[in-house]
Every structure is written in C-alpha cells, then in structure tokens.
C-alpha cells in the first residue's frame, strides 16, 4: 500500500467522524459505507459513555472534533512530508494505550499505520469501545489494512517494537519487560501555566479550558500554576466561573468533596470557589478539582527550574515566557506534529530495523 492510499483512508475516517463531532449527531449522505457503520458507531458512543463516567457526551464529541480537524489531506501531508518513507521495512508494532481521555491512543495508532507498519493494540479497559470500530471502518475504506490491525486483551507478544503509555509505576515495569526491543515508554506528565499578573479576562477563560476539559485527567491539562509574589487570585477565579456547572457531574463533585475534606482535616491552607480548589504545593500532579500553585521571584530562575523538571512536564502555557509555550486555551488542541513527551514517534517508527 502506498503512502497516499494510507493518507486517503484516514481522510475518509475523518469524514466519517465529522458526523459525530458535535453533541447533536448529524448523518451525512456523502460518507462511504455509512449505512453499514453509522448506527453502529452511535451505539459504541453510548457504550463508551455508560462504561466510563468520565467520558461524557460532551468530552467524547470534543475529542472526536479534534481528530476531524486533524485528519484532513492538508494536515496529514504537512505532517508527513518531511520524512522519508520510501524504505520502510514493515514490522509489528505493539501499542499499550492509556484510557484517561477518549481515543487517547489514536495518535500512536495512526502513526504506526501511516508509516506502513502493522499494529498490535492493547487498550485500556477504560477506553475500549471506540477504536476497534473505527479500525473496522478503516479496513472497509482501504481493504489493504486488513490483516495489519490486531487488538488483544492478552499478554502482548510477537512484536518488533512497542509504544507504551502508563503511570510512573507501570513505566518502570514496561522498561524491564520490553528491554531489548525498540520502544517509546511514556509515564506521568502534567502541564503548567506561568502567570504574570497581566493576563486578560479572555486569557483566564481560555485557561479554564486547559484546566477543566476532560475533568483535568489528561497530561495536557494544566494542573499547576506558577505565579509572582503577592498574586491576587480574583481575576483567576472570575475567569474560571463559566465552568461552574462542572460541579453538577457526580464523579467530579465526589472528588471535590473528598479532597476538600482531606485538606480541611489536614488544616492545609487553600482557596476555593465551590467547584475548584487552589493550594500551594511543590508537586506537579494535583488531584481532580484541585490546582496547585507555586510562587516565583525571578523569570530566569523559573525557566531553569522548568528545564530541570522537563521530564515531568508535558506543556507550558504562557504568553511570552518560553520558546515552546502553548497559548492559553490550546493545550487540548494539539497538531499532528505535537508529539507527546516531545518524542518524534514517526522518526522512531521509520528507524525500526
């Protein structure tokens, strides 16, 4: 199969997904194999929502919309043009996926197939309904994918390379278990925002998206703020307010109540507004419904600290602070070439011998 065939197949998948990229699903007459797949995918969406309380209809639609916008011919071509794919030796690449947000492993799945390899997928039990159905759709629009996509719930075996995502503990296990194989091993990372006190109301409203989208469960969600001394949080809380309905979601509310009780019993100092708590803490990984913050005195020293801690950080949200910063509100809208942990997975896949 040629690269242009693989690209065209994913463009068609994006067209299919476009029907589901809003909470109000709209069937289109122009989609290939729609009579066979449309109702079935609606059912898979329902199953995904019922199976995982964090996968709300809104968050699933948001994730799908991101992939619809990514899977265009222009985007895929722009992403892949810099690479030389003429000498790829087809290998079996295993992917062990996380399940924290809907379709979180799709970029790895896409990367393996678009580079011409075969893929062996072990999904998280938290996110197991959507991808196998989309893989079946891919096989219909491009039959040469048949035999190249395998899903397993068993021990991962008979593979040439692996991309595995998990917690810090499972990452250590992965490193031991997959030693001797080409691998990308990802562990826990969090995202931070650097505030100066000059942020606008629009900046804070956008930052709220970085904090609350997917209930803060993604590695690209902001979980930590760096703020100047004597920072006034009034404007920050005002910018968060339009997300206040999040407390009406039972799983989020339960986490909010539990963490608030822990903080109060431990007599920790914290500020809260009824749906979000902020607490001074040196850690990067904050619990659900909580944002940690840390003061800084000197911008250069903060830059040095973040460089030293780059293994714990996925994104830095700021305005004019650092070269590779992410704009407020953009953390959950990565481009195809925005690689997790800044590891170029296409380059890795093309180097497998």
UniProtKB/TrEMBL annotation:
Q: Which residues cross the membrane?
A: none
Instruction: Tell me which Gene Ontology terms the entry assigns under biological process.
Output: bioluminescence
Q: Name one GO molecular function term.
A: acyl-CoA dehydrogenase activity
Say if the entry is tagged with keyword NADP: yes
Residues in a coiled coil are none
Look up the signal peptide feature and give its range: none
**A single Pfam family, by name?**
LuxC
Q: Which UniProt keywords apply?
A: NADP
* Protein name, UniProt field: Acyl-CoA reductase LuxC
């Amino acid at each position: 199969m040629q690269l242009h065939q693989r690209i065209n197949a994913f463009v068609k998948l994006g067209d299919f997904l476009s029907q589901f990229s809003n909470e109000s699903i709209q069937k289109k007459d122009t989609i290939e194999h729609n009579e066979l797949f449309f109702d079935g995918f609606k059912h898979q969406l329902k199953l995904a929502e019922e199976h995982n309380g964090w996968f709300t209809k809104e968050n699933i639609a948001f994730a799908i919309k991101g992939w619809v916008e990514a899977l265009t011919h222009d985007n895929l071509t722009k992403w892949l043009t810099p690479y030389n794919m003429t000498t790829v030796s087809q290998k079996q690449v295993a992917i062990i996926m996380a399940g924290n947000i809907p379709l979180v492993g799709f970029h790895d799945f896409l990367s393996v197939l678009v580079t011409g390899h075969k893929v062996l997928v072990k999904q998280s039990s938290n996110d197991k309904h959507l991808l196998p159905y989309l893989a079946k759709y891919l096989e219909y629009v491009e039959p040469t994918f048949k035999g190249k996509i395998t899903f397993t719930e068993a021990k991962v075996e008979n593979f040439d390379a692996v991309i595995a995502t998990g917690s810090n503990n499972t990452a250590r296990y992965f490193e031991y278990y997959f030693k001797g194989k080409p691998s990308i091993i990802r562990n826990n990372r969090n995202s931070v925002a650097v505030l100066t006190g000059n942020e606008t109301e629009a900046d804070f409203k956008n930052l709220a998206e970085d904090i609350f989208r997917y209930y803060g469960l993604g590695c690209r969600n902001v979980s930590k703020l760096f703020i100047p001394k004597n920072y006034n949080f009034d404007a920050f809380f005002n910018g968060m307010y339009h997300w206040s309905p999040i407390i009406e979601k039972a799983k989020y509310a339960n986490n909010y109540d539990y963490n608030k009780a822990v903080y109060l019993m431990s007599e920790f100092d914290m500020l809260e507004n009824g749906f979000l708590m902020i607490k001074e803490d040196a850690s990067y990984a904050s619990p659900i419904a909580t944002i940690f913050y840390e003061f800084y005195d000197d911008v250069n020293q903060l830059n040095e600290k973040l460089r030293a801690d780059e293994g714990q950080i996925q994104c830095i949200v700021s305005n004019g602070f650092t070269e590779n910063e992410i704009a407020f509100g953009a953390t959950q809208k990565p481009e195809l070439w925005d690689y997790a942990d800044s590891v170029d997975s296409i380059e890795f896949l093309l180097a497998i011998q």
